[in-house]
Recover the amino acids of this structure.
């Protein structure tokens, strides 16, 4: 953790990412056109707080609040306000097709149509939508809708109150990652694969805008458990093998075992890509890997081999001024900070 001298008369934005295996905070200093890393912190819980069946955080609200309080007390953050990320797996999202109509008619039509795709009463969710110009024409509109249960919103509001932090807004993680990794002026069709601990989020960005996103119910913890079972080793040893040898491993068929689990994720990602093309989109030209799993040795090369598409490991700090003494450390950890950075970049 880094504690620089606080600068006055500057705009500080704080992003809070409460993930399934860790909590990350990133504070950026917005100084005109320059954006600087002001501070960051991360919390990894003790094994007692990890659910053995899912491999994810098993913390009560007050425990998350306590972890955040400790992070704030140990690190000098300048902002009393924050933007918080919402997990994709806690939301409902779909791409809706509607006949072309006026903006006023569109708003009413979406309010009616979205009820068909949400498995709970509309009164129990908060939903938003955006018209996808890249897939719309004079005859039909394509609209991306996102709904989040009220109980999820209330949960994070309670935690924020416990920590005494003012949440300016909440945002689905997909949009945060896209903001951190893809320029709004980009004309490419880019896919982001966020290999998290519990799940993998697949999103497609065209013209700098999120067009489609899909949550795959498989992630790094599932890969680790599969490797442990296949090699008859404990989870700690399997995690070590995955992180140090990965897909590049040559011994004991480690590579083959890992690919077997990774392929299930990539097959679902391929289906998302095909659905995008069927909706009128163009071929993916670049894939960005993010999340903690992105650093698995050989993973990027394997994804490139499978899809025959340029593939890179995410660096959300690429366009941010980072103190020289932190550059090497953050390069090793940066894929896992995409959501927190994207939240702190939100204006």
């Amino acid at each position: 953790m880094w504690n620089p001298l606080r600068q006055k008369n500057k705009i500080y934005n704080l992003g809070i990412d409460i993930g399934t295996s860790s909590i990350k905070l990133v504070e950026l200093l917005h100084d005109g056109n320059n954006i600087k890393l002001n501070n960051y912190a991360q919390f990894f819980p003790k094994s007692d707080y990890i659910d053995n069946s899912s491999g994810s955080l098993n913390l009560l609200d007050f425990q998350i609040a306590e972890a955040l309080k400790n992070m704030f007390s140990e690190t000098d953050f300048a902002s009393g306000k924050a933007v918080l990320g919402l997990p994709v797996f806690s939301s409902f999202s779909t791409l809706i097709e509607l006949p072309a109509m006026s903006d006023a008619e569109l708003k009413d039509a979406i309010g009616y149509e979205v009820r068909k795709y949400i498995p709970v009463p509309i009164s129990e969710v908060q939903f938003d939508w955006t018209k996808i110009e890249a897939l719309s024409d004079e005859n039909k509109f394509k609209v991306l809708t996102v709904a989040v249960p009220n109980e999820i919103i209330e949960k994070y509001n309670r935690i924020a109150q416990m920590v005494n932090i003012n949440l300016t807004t909440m945002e689905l993680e997909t949009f945060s990652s896209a903001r951190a990794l893809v320029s709004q002026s980009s004309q490419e069709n880019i896919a982001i694969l966020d290999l998290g601990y519990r799940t993998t989020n697949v999103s497609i960005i065209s013209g700098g805008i999120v067009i489609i996103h899909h949550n795959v119910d498989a992630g790094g913890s599932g890969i680790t458990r599969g490797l442990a079972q296949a090699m008859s080793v404990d989870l700690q040893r399997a995690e070590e093998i995955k992180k140090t040898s990965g897909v590049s491993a040559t011994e004991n068929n480690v590579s083959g075992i890992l690919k077997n689990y990774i392929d299930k994720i990539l097959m679902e990602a391929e289906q998302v890509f095909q659905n995008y093309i069927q909706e009128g989109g163009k071929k993916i030209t670049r894939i960005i890997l993010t999340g903690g799993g992105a650093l698995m040795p050989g993973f990027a090369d394997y994804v490139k081999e499978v899809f025959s598409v340029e593939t890179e490991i995410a660096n959300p700090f690429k366009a941010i001024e980072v103190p020289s003494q932190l550059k090497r450390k953050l390069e090793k950890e940066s894929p896992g900070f995409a959501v927190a950075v994207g939240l702190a970049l939100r204006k």
The two ends are 25 Å apart (CA to CA). The first helix runs from residue 61 to 74. Residues 178 and 210 are 7 Å apart (CA to CA).
